[in-house]
Amino acid sequence: MEGVNYKIAAPQGVDPSTLFFVQVDKDKCQACGECETHCPTGAIQEMHPDGERGVVDPAACVNCGQCLANCPFGAISEQVSYVGEIFEKLKDPDTIVVSMPAPAVRYGLGECFGMPTGTYVGGKMHAALRRLGFGLVWDNEWTADVTIMEEGTELLERVKKGDKPLPQFTSCCPGWVKFAETFYPDLNAHLSTCRSPIGMLGPLAKTYGSEQSGIKSKKMYTVSIMPCVAKKFEGLRPEMNASGSRDIDATINTRELAWMIKQAGIDFASLPEEQPDPALGMSTGAATIFGTSGGVMEAALRLAYEVLSGNTLANPDIKVVRAHEGIKTADIPVPNFGTVKVAVVSGLQNAAKLCDEVRAGKSPYHFIEVMTCPGGCVNGGGQPLEPEMLQSSLFHSTVAKINRRFNQRRVG
Q1: Predicted model pTM
Q2: 231 is a catalytic site residue
Q3: Cα–Cα dist 63/178, whole Å
């Protein structure tokens, strides 16, 4: 499926913490250790006599998929895929399949159809979803805006009332949230209480969306479309049932959506630009920048600035908080308030440094954004693989097979 092997499995009613969402194929692994260098938690280790790696325990894995995206041998596969089930639901006349794509998907999907990296294809994506048979084309950008209102308001309450600890961490990234819950459970009170945008859109689709569209929620089958492998874990969390049933029935990533479009014989490049459906399809530019590291911070600061100062920003761009890697900090002067200290973190090794500061009571920040993947969701583990990586995987795999056969023939 777009250069990655998938195990077609659509788990239902299981504890997601017991599932492997990515795993190393021992027969393809050449023990180079590249996956291990990209794993933020040490979940991938040597498991076999010849040094082949594997994910040793799903509890330690944050499901980011960076090992998969960086394996030069194509030896890592996804273990959970709802593609088969979605195709069946699309054929069912009694089911209304609802699409809920994330902001970053529309900046990665075009690559699978020969378009330059980073090409915006939001309109074509919506058109493709309709042609696949999705009955309602809604958009996760809608709830990205809701997240800003909720997360920004929560930050304001923490700053003004002091009844909850600072700094406040963002809670949009499922890899980061699992990392924090697993390795820094004592800092849970610092995490924003807001659900992620898809964590909000799922229940809204089956409640408000159902009411607005006149379609009963029992007939809805909601599909989260993400740039991320970890969102599959999030969709299965037992808390995701605020609508009274499963908020998110299935989760796929950008690669899987591209494969579905190709399987359906849709000429993606020639599709017209179409808008999402009303009720849960509108959004602002603040929602769009969610896909890049610093985007959540920038959008939240816009709200906080205007509420705290009572002034409207002359220029809504707060580029000082945009980051591509590492840790970026900024002091934002706010009239009638003072200085808001913020940090934007890309990568969990960097997040751990700030978590240690918070744990030690030495953090100077009010607000910290954490994205697991380098540069944010646009480089998520579910996005298209780099063409060079695919070519490298084919070359390395061929050489590896030859070497393995040669070594097997040696005597003594």
Answers
A1: 0.89
A2: yes
A3: 9
Catalytic residue among 124, 206, 231, 328: 231
Q: At what angle do helices 140-161 and 197-206 cross, to 10 degrees?
A: 120
71 part of the active site: no
**Residue 112, domain CATH:** 3.40.50.1780
Active site residue 234: yes
Candidate list 77, 81, 171, 192, residue with the active-site label: 192
> Does residue 327 share a domain with residue 342?
yes
Q: Are residues 107 and 227 in the same domain?
A: yes
Tokens representing residue 35 in the block: 């996956």
DSSP 146-194: HHHHHHHHHHHHHHHH--S-SSEEP---HHHHHHHHHH-GGGGGGB-SP
Query: Among this protein's residues, is 239 annotated catalytic?
Result: yes
Residue-wise pLDDT tens digits, 368-397: 999 999 888 889 999 998 766 545 544 444
pLDDT tens digits, residue range 72-108?
Answer: 999 999 999 999 999 999 999 999 999 999 999 999 9
The verdict on whether 172 is a catalytic residue reads yes
**pLDDT tens for each residue of 207-261:** 999 999 999 999 999 999 999 999 999 999 999 998 888 999 999 999 999 999 9
Would you state the pLDDT for residue 366?
92
Phi and psi at 222, nearest 5°, equal: -90, 130
pLDDT tens-place string over residues 307-366 = 777 777 666 566 556 556 688 888 888 777 788 888 989 899 999 999 999 999 999 999
78, 151, 256, 369: which one is catalytic?
A: 151
Question: Does the residue 8 lie in any domain?
Answer: no
Residue 117 lies inside a defined structural domain of this protein: yes
- Check 234, 256, 298, 369 and give the catalytic one: 234
Q: Identify whether residues 62 and 89 lie together within a single domain.
A: no
Q: Does 85 qualify as catalytic in the annotation?
A: no
Shared domain for 152 and 136, answered yes or no, is no
Q: Which of 36, 154, 181, 274 is catalytic?
A: 154
DSSP conformation class of 13: S
Both 120 and 242 in a single domain? yes
Q: Given 161, 239, 362, 388, which residue is catalytic?
A: 239
Active site residue 154: yes
Q: Is residue 10 part of a domain?
A: no
Alpha-carbon torsion (56, 57, 58, 60), positive or negative: negative
Catalytic residue among 67, 71, 172, 173: 172
Angle, in degrees to the nearest 10, between helices 254-263 and 83-91: 50
Split into its structural domains, the chain has a count of 3
pLDDT of 399 strictly over 50? no
Domain that residue 226 falls in:
83-140+197-283
